[in-house]
Target: Carrier domain-containing protein
Amino acid sequence: DMPLRAFVLFSSVAGVFGGAGQAGYAAANAFLDGLAHHRRSQGLPGLSLAWGMWAEPDGMTGRLADAGHERLSRAGLTALTATDGLALLDAGCADGRPLLVPAPLNLAAARAAAATAGRVTPLLRGLVPAPLPRAAASATGTGGPALASRLAGVPTPEQRRLLVDLVRTHAAAVLGHAVPRTIADDTAFNELGFDSLTAVELRNRLGDATGLRLPAALVFDHPTLVLLAEYLRAELVDTPSADAVLSRLAAELSQLDMSTVERDRVAMRLQALATAWTDETSDLGDDGVGAATDEELFDLIDESFGQA
Model:
């Protein structure tokens, strides 16, 4: 009943665009936006300003970690200074519409985010072109089959190095690190500042890069660069079975032109290998050879032939 000249509400852009992990906060701000519309429909003054991210730490942004700020910046939100905010407040009060979104956008960053996610937020479709579907985009990239093929052509240590570098590069991008090598191989992701949202973003990036469907808890189940890279290697690289290793060894031996003395020496080495293998697998229980990994087979072959 008060004769108000203005009824101005400060809400958040989260109520307009939504926000991962901010369902309650977004709903509360959407209520304020709805209240402004309701008052206007009743012939009363009403204006809701759905503010973007503030440069000065305050409210929700004051509780965001650096990774959270970086995530919002990559999505295309530009931080507002107090001076910019006051100017937008004046402009909003003079505009006449019930809901305005004073949230400066970095359209280049928004386009890059859309390309990475494979989709555009519906409210930005008039400003940001739709990216290629993920299936089409991955067909032109180096992920999936191309990465698996590259890994298949290099030794195991090089596979590990390539995948650690891949994980490091994407982890640095998620955290906003300009220099990926500053992330140590054995540093836990939670010590780097990863939370549930950035962990999902890293999972999505690695899924696009590898072509794999990765579990939601990927980063928490494999909490360092090395452990995560090893998981990816196991998923991407087809390791030969024990029978395949022995068949390949038999085929290679059959191609050798050896004298009787050389054959005897090879036979002694194979006998030493069998003896060493029996000793190594005696503690594996009833499974024996079947319980050993292919890598253990290769290591034992190398060790036995090297010693003979």
Summary: The chain has 16 helices and three strands.
